[in-house]
Amino acid sequence: MTVAELRDRARRVMPGGNTRSTLFVPPHPPYAVSGAGCVVTDATGHRVVDCNNNYTALIHGHAHPELVAVATEAVAAGSAFGLPTESEVVCAELLRERTGLPSWRFCNSGTEAVMMALRGARAATGRDLVVRFAGSYHGTYDAVVDPAAPGVPGSVADSVVTLPQGDAGALADLLRSRGSEVAAVLLDLMPNRAGLRPADPAFVEQAADLTRRAGALLVVDEVITLRLEVGGLHTRYGLEPDLVTVGKVVGGGFPVGGVGGRAEVLDSFSPLTDGPVSWGGTFSANPVTMRTGTAALRLFGAAEVAALNARGDRLRGELAGRGVPVSGSGSLVRLLLPDPGATWWRLYERGVLAGTNGLLALSTPMTDDDVDAVRDAVLSAVEGAA
Ligand code: PMP
């Protein structure tokens, strides 16, 4: 089966042949067949070093032997139950230990985690309004996408205020006039779509302070950034968020989302309280995700986090030294090149799978030689574009 044949079949059964807007690259992306370590093989047999890692989720690359063993054992013992399992308790205990956030709930994606955090924040404060910053991506939930996006009802857009990225003055103005309506201020400390630049610590401190003084909750979206520190990027800023959303690396390669935070806030979900917030999810906290995710996090301790960040810092430094515009922090590197689609294909032909916006996410199976190969492919792709 050729790529064109598969694409044509896809177009007959899926709109535009696509089921995941975020990974589309025109005219149509290649099809993956298998992955091992940091290498992915596509349907034509072309092999690429995977710097996409399913949009930063696969911290240990593909088919890590230990994770395959854990997942296989979990599947063999029953993949999902209409009862809780010990695995969710173990995963929550580990996240508590790593982040210092005492209370946790799980779901199936980062999108759902943001939905759950905002529902919880609205319930806990009795307020409706959510504040977000332009250019920050928080998944596909109505309330956090661009209010002008097709399909988003005006009534939802009315319950959200979008402020300029990193603008503490705008936040102060808004909270002065409408502070008593605001349930949550949603912050990404290194927003990928806004350029993957770490937030200015002075802005973060002011935003946290203003939010607290308005009686609103600070929700930090760590769906991508959790991998940058053992306890997530907020720990680097010394922040104490009310709620944190996680996903991606926490699932060990399987679908996952989670919300952690202060017990008083998350207690609004407790079935032991009067009139709790209801939140289901047929596959939430399934033992395959929980057990494999817990194992993946255990393989990503302080030493591994630091080593991977050092590799990313080296890659970013060497690219910047050769005049390539780059951003990011640690194991997340972003190429700030015009025409990301064309760059994506040039990288792919040179053996590197990037994110469609130029994001390069490193994984633990990568060696120094792999990182050198990625650097050389980027340099060649950039020269190819000149
Ligand atoms: N928040 C952030 C910061 C993200 O980058 C993403 C996805 N890339 C999400 C939320 C949504 O996560 P998911 O794709 O698992 O729904």
Question: Which features does this protein show?
Answer:
2 domains, Aspartate Aminotransferase, domain 1, alpha/beta, Aspartate Aminotransferase, domain 2, 16% strand, four-stranded mixed sheet, 386 residues, binds 4'-deoxy-4'-aminopyridoxal-5'-phosphate
Task: Explain how this protein is built.
- InterPro entries: Aminotrans_3 (IPR005814), PyrdxlP-dep_Trfase (IPR015424), PyrdxlP-dep_Trfase_major (IPR015421), PyrdxlP-dep_Trfase_small (IPR015422).
- GO terms for molecular function: pyridoxal phosphate binding; transaminase activity.
- Belongs to the class-III pyridoxal-phosphate-dependent aminotransferase family.
- This is Glutamate-1-semialdehyde 2,1-aminomutase.
- The structure is a single chain.
- With 386 residues, this protein is an alpha/beta fold.
- It folds into 2 domains: 3-64 and 301-385, Aspartate Aminotransferase, domain 1, CATH 3.90.1150.10; 65-298, Aspartate Aminotransferase, domain 2, CATH 3.40.640.10.
- The chain has 13 helices and 14 strands.
- The protein has helices spanning 3-13, 53-56, 65-76, 86-99, 110-125, 154-157, 168-178, 201-213, 263-266, 287-298, 302-321, 340-349, 368-385; strands at residues 32-36, 39-42, 47-50, 103-107, 129-133, 160-163, 182-187, 217-221, 243-247, 257-261, 326-329, 332-335, 352-353, 359-361.
- The strands form 3 sheets. It has a 7-stranded mixed sheet, sandwiched between helices.
- α3 packs antiparallel against α10 and α7 runs parallel beside α8 (201-213).
- The longest helix has 20 residues, at 302-321.
- It starts with a helix and ends with a helix.
- It binds 4'-deoxy-4'-aminopyridoxal-5'-phosphate.
- 4'-deoxy-4'-aminopyridoxal-5'-phosphate is lined by residues 55, 109-111, 114, 137-139, 188, 192, 221, 223-224, 247.
